[in-house]
Fold this protein.
Amino acid sequence: MKLYKSLLPLALLLLFCFRVQAQETIDKAAIEEFTLQAINDTAYTLRTTNTAGNLVKYSGVLPLRVNGALQEADFLEGETLLQLPKAGELVQVSANLGTHTLARLYRPDAAAPGGLREFPMWLSILPPLIAIVLALIFREVLLALFAGIWVGGFVIYGLSFKSAFTGLLAVGDTYLMEALTDSDHVSVIIFSMLIGGMVAIISKNGGMAGIVNLLSRYARSAKSAQVVTWALGLAIFFDDYANTLIVGNTMRPVTDGHKVSREKLAYLVDSTAAPVAAIAFVTTWVGAELGYIKDAATSLGIEEGAYSLFFHSLEYAYYPVLTLVFMLMLILMNRDFGSMHTAEVRARTTGAVTSASMDRQGEARQQQEMAEFEPVDNSRTRAANALLPVLVVIFGTLVGLLYTGYNPDVWADASLGSIRKLSITIGDSNSYLSLIWASLSGVIVAILLTVSQRIMSLTATMESLVVGFKTMLPAILILVLAWSLAAVTQELYTAEYLTSLFSGNISPHFLPEITFFLAAIIAFSTGSSWGTMAILYPLMLPAAWYVSQMQGFSLEETMPIIYNVISVVLAGSVFGDHCSPISDTTILSSLASGCNHIDHVKTQLPYAVTVALVANLVCTNLSSWGVHWLLVYLIGAVVLWAIIRWLGKKNVVEAIPVAEAVEA
C-alpha cells in the first residue's frame, strides 16, 4: 500500500506530461491562421488561431520569419510578443508548420481592427511580374521597370486612391534616391562610366582597331571569333562586372566583322561572366558565398570549414559548368536553335548583326554612335594602345583585391595553403573600390598613350571620354531602376513569400532540385543573384540538415545533400539571373555587346532553360542515386550534345555560285 501511494504521484506526473506533449502536438497541427495586434510601432502580439478566428492555445517554441529575420518565438497559450528593431511600413510574418506554411503581410493602420490591416501576400509578386511582362510585351525596359516600382509603392502605401499618387512620388523621392545613395551602387555606376570612357578613348586612338587586327589572326571565321570570345570570358574570371564590360566591348568589332549576331555575342558574354565568377576559387563572389555558408554551418554545428564545404559543392555545380560546356559545343558544332538560330542566319545572310526590326531612326542613331568610335587615323591602329589600358584594368583589379583584402595574420598561418590564403584575401577584399581604382587607372593610361603619341589633343581626348560616359547613360538608367525595383521587392518580402510557397514535408533527395528552382524564381523575380543567395543559404541549409536528420540519415548520407544544396542555391541564382530582364548583369551584357536588351533576353532564355533542365532532371537525379560526379558531368555533356544535334541547325549559309550570281 505504501508502495502504491509513493508511485501514484509519479504516475500522475507522467500522465500529465504525456497529455501536455500530446496537446502541444495537436495544437501545432491545428494552427491555421495568425492574428497580429499592434501594441505600439515596434511591438506586436501574435496569436495562433484557426480559420474561424478561434484561439489555438499552442504553447512552445515556433520558428518564425519576421520581416525576413529568422527567430524562435516562445508561445504561451497561443500568444507571443514580437519586438521589431524599428518601425516600418509593413510587417511580414511566416512560419513553416510542417504540413503547411503560413505567410502574412500587415500594414499599420490605426483605423483598422487591432491597429493593423492585412494584405494577401501574393501582391508582393506583382511589381516584378508587371515589370517582366511589360518588358517582354512592349520591349521598353525603362517604362516596364518604372511601372513595377510604381505598383510596388501602390501596394506598400496602402492600396488606396491616395497611395496611387504616393507610390508614384515615392518612385523618385524614395526608391530612386535610395538606389543612388547606396555606396555599392554608386561604385558600379562610376566603374561603368569609366570603362565606357576608356573604351571610347581606345576606340578613337586606334587601339581597338589594332586589337581587332591582332585578334583577326586567330578569329578568322565566325566560329573562331566566338571561340576567342568564349576563352576571353573564361580568362577574366575574377569579377562578373569586369568580365561583361571588357569582353563585350573588346570583342564586338571582331564578331561584327565575321557576321556574328549581337544576340550571340551577348549570350557568350553573359553566360561566361557569372558562371565563371561563381565557381572560381579566387573571385569577388567567394567572400559572400563563404560568409553565408559559414554562418549556416556554425548554427548547425557542422565542423567542416566553409571553404571545404564550398570546394565539395563544386562537384554538384552542374548548371555553371555545363553552361560553359554547352556554349563551346554550340560554337564548335556551328549549330543554334530557336530565336538564336534566326538571329545568326540573319547576320550571316544580310550582314545585319543587330535586330532587323530596328526602325530608320534607330539605325541612324546606331550609325552615329558607331561613327563616334571610329579611329581618328586609320593608319595608326596600334593594339598596344588598347591592350595596355585593358591589362591595367585586369591586373589593377587583382592588385586592388589583394590590397584591400590583405591580412598579415592569414598569410602568417602555416596551416593554410597558398590557394586557401589567396581565397580568404579575395573574399575579404572590397571589390567595388578595386574596380574603381583599376578602371580609373585604365582611363589615365589611355589618355597618356593617346596624348603622348599625338594621336589626339588633350581636349579631343577628354571629349571622347565624355562621349564614352554618355554611351553608358541608358544602361545606368536601367540599372538604377532595377535596383529600385529590387528594393521594392525586398520591402514587400517577395522572396519570403515565394519561399513559403515551396515549403513543406519533402524527401531530402528532392531538396536540391526544389532549392534550385526556388532560387531561380527568386532571382528571376528580383533580378539579384546575390540577394537570392542571402535569402536561401540561411533558409535551405538548415532545412536540408533537419529534414535529413528527421529521416534518420547518417552524417555520411547527409553531407552530400548539404554539398548539393550549397551548389544549387548558387546555380539557381545564376540561372534566374540569366533569364531575368531586370538583372543588372543581363543589362550590362546587352549594353557591352551593343544588343537590344529584350532580344538578348529572348535568345538567351531557351539556352539557359535547356541547360537548367539537363542539370537538374538528369545530373541532380543521377547524383542522388550515387553516380560518381565525374560520370554525371560526362553524361550531362553527352545529353546536351544530343540536344544540339537534334534541335540545332547549321548556321553556315551556302554561297550562291558565281556563275548563277552573274546570270541573275
About this structure: The first strand starts at residue 33 and ends at 38. Strands lie at 33-38, 43-49, 60-66, 69-75, 79-83, 91-96, 101-108, 116-119, 335-336, 649-650. Residues 338 and 606 are 7 Å apart (CA to CA). Residues 18-26, 654-664 have pLDDT under 50 and may be disordered.
